[in-house]
């Protein structure tokens, strides 16, 4: 009996935080998972033998072609480190140029899958929290807004998921709001990393998530409805 091969997914940012949860969830669901890592030994120790770990660094474009070769989908959650100062040079190299170089490497490799990109809410709506984050991680929201235009202008299939403040809490505890308006960055607009992981894995192959941009934050009360039904309502971005 022939066995159907599950898709191979590259997770960029899969060594920590939301990206690590996404990599583990993909593996649990039977996908082949490749993780890009700056520190191979640390990533291999964290992930174990059933993950493929490839060396790479977003600020070194020449390391990206090997990572994107022969993958069916790419999930990108990497970013300049949160919670501490990052100069604009590093922010631009990671949050902007790193994405642009990944898209270019994927195109050159003949990639035909979906590029699923994690962005922050608040990239187009001014707020006190957004101003403070732009001061700490210099202009990160400006570069992250600009990179969305590059993703939409590329000829690749994509899904852009903007997330609220990230918390380390279990998935499924709270209602989730999936919206296509621009929420401000504010502490009330938050969500668990584990819910974000569910959203990425569900959106990656959901037909209605193709060429869409949407935002996810916790709503009020308990979870109702499946991710599938939430994503069914998405509208594609204007061309
Ligand atoms: N914290 C929040 O509330 C919040 C809100 C909205 C959006 N975000 C964004 O959400 C994403 C996930 O956040 P998180 O806190 O869960 O994870 P995180 O701890 O910020 O992890 C960042 C990931 O990016 C990778 N990375 C950074 N620079 C890289 C480079 N030059 N080359 C390759 N990989 C690189 C890191 O790899 P290493 O292990 O090698 O460092 C790590 O895997 C980030 O992009 C963050 O900016 C965060």
List the helices and strands and how they pair.
Blueprint: E1 8-12, H1 17-28, E2 32-37, H2 40-47, E3 52-55, H3 64-68, E4 73-76, H4 88-108, E5 114-120, H5 128-136, H6 140-153, E6 157-163, E7 165-167, E8 176-179, E9 190-192, H7 193-204, E10 212-218, H8 227-232
Parallel strand pairs: 1-2, 1-4, 2-3, 4-5, 5-6, 6-10, 7-9
Antiparallel strand pairs: 8-10
Bound molecules: NADP nicotinamide-adenine-dinucleotide phosphate.
Domain NAD(P)-binding: 13-207
Short structural summary:
By secondary structure, the protein is an alpha/beta fold. It has helices at 17-28, 40-47, 64-68, 88-108, 128-136, 140-153, 193-204, 227-232, and strands spanning 8-12, 32-37, 52-55, 73-76, 114-120, 157-163, 165-167, 176-179, 190-192, 212-218.
């Amino acid at each position: 009996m022939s066995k159907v091969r599950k898709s191979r997914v590259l997770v960029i940012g899969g060594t920590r935080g939301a990206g690590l949860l996404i990599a583990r969830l993909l593996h649990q669901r039977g996908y082949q998972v490749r993780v890009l890592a700056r520190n191979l030994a640390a990533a291999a120790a964290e992930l174990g033998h059933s993950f493929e770990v490839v060396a790479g660094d977003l600020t070194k474009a020449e390391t990206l072609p090997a990572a994107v070769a022969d993958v069916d989908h790419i999930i990108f959650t990497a970013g300049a480190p949160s919670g501490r100062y990052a100069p604009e040079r590093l922010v631009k190299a990671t949050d902007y140029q790193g994405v642009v170089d990944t898209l270019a490497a994927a195109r050159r490799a003949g990639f035909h899958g979906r590029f699923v990109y994690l962005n922050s809410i608040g990239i187009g709506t001014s707020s006190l929290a957004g101003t403070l984050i732009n001061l700490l991680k210099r202009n990160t929201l400006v570069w992250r807004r600009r990179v969305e235009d590059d993703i939409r202008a590329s000829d690749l299939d994509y899904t852009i998921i903007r997330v609220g403040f990230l918390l380390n809490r279990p998935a499924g505890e709270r209602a989730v709001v999936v919206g296509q308006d621009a929420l401000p960055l504010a502490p009330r607009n938050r969500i668990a990393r584990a819910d974000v992981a569910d959203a990425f894995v569900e959106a990656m192959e959901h037909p209605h998530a193709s060429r869409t941009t949407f935002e996810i934050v916790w709503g009020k009360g308990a979870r109702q409805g499946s991710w599938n039904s939430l994503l069914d309502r998405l509208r594609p971005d204007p061309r």
